């Protein structure tokens, strides 16, 4: 929901991450008067807007509070983040919980619908209705859609889902033209079943709670299912959850059953993340990582083979959003990995394994690591034509560091050991090509290629040292350290006064780029570079000549910054300078000048006459996992195991001992 639309929430439609509006109407009926709570842009005269009072978010919840007549309503959107529960994490659904409270008795009905735009096209969706026991579910899809096809980044080959289950309410359903279905609920407080429809239409479910005094809630499940989610080297991979719930209706029914535990876990995660982030770098940093969590996890498909449904063959896939749609891009996994390091480092292995299997099969013939596993999502079919985007130093260094990070965090040496020979080749490539670096791209391909880029040389040195530490081969550890000495101690990568690392070497003393690759040396305690290499950044990156209104740009040529790399760099600096970086990112996040999902690339200063504080290109990228860089310094697995005791009350502003009831009347 774009932030500039929240104050008009009753009329505002939510969006797909790329900016397309999606129909999702929520209406409450209080004592025969209907009120729009969300998503009714053109209401009939018999539907009034509710009054919006507040909007809040945690890592897993977004909560809007409104009033309609004498009743207060809370819309709680919960997207579970379950680091160690692959079943829960892989379920492609979210909860909408509508909670109503009133001091007096009111006659109340609740309604929610979604429209055909959820299928990836605006009109002519097919729908189906399922009911078993008390659970009701609608699905919508596009008839005869091509498998693995997209429209403006939206999948076309799956099914949009709306489901619910009554507790003590009476439930009704309908499908049809949106205006007609919504008016029917507003007039009658119930729905009259399905009608054939073409063009714009909705599927809707409603609850009649009768007379309500005090507090009551109803739950809806909303999501999008792709039974064949990923094409991995010609084989279909599906959601992990289908090992236990191969049928969509059964998965949805389980998801509704799981609300109690999912809510408890979410409350524990929100509380623990908030506390640890505040202790790490203050309240503003806590705000940043909370807003980043769902976005970073939402970019991942956790899958198993569709044929065998064998959970021991689980693989994870990640889409390069907002650029070219590549799959499992190594330099997307890399900036995001502090999130996995903190929540569950096994995701590093799950995301690298599709590539490592491909490399081990000998299908990639270059001496450096492949850039990605597929030109466009969801086809992870490799690059047998050998034409992947070339980032030789970048991706070789990334792979070696990620392998060590996974091993250090988990204690699992067997996974990387099976690929030692492959990785040794990439370490040797860094040795041979990491000083006289050919003109090439780094992860920041928008900035263009460069020869002898210092930050790539830093990554090469750290990558070589990482391989030495991973394998115990002292030669590589020694060479990595020698390379660091060359670029810092002997000054090849710095200006003459050693005030900063230069953008490119040699003889470019006035240039600079943020040396974010030093973070890897600090996180893994490799000691490739001496402390003095980090100390010189404290003064340099606090300078007004370098630092912009919203942080430090990527390099001296740019006005734009990368939020993930700025948090990485902050992790190498002293507390005072680190806090400046946190303040700058928080200022961008809260400046009111943009209404995108969290952008990791934005204008930080106006030296080249750019408007500061606005995002550039990048929407909703999982690379915001890099914002967890400061938390990751506290160690791996900080949030893998979560305590559930006593947290739900604390998180939602309830007094100790107050009882919260779930939809089945059970105490939470």
UniProtKB/TrEMBL annotation:
It comes from the Eukaryota. InterPro entries: 6-hairpin_glycosidase_sf, Glutaminase_GtaA, GtaA_central, GtaA_N. Signal peptide: none annotated. Residues 60-275 form the Glutaminase A N-terminal domain. SUPFAM superfamilies: Six-hairpin glycosidases. One of its GO terms (biological process) is carbohydrate metabolic process. Coiled coil: none annotated. Residues 282-631 form the Glutaminase A central domain. This is Glutaminase.
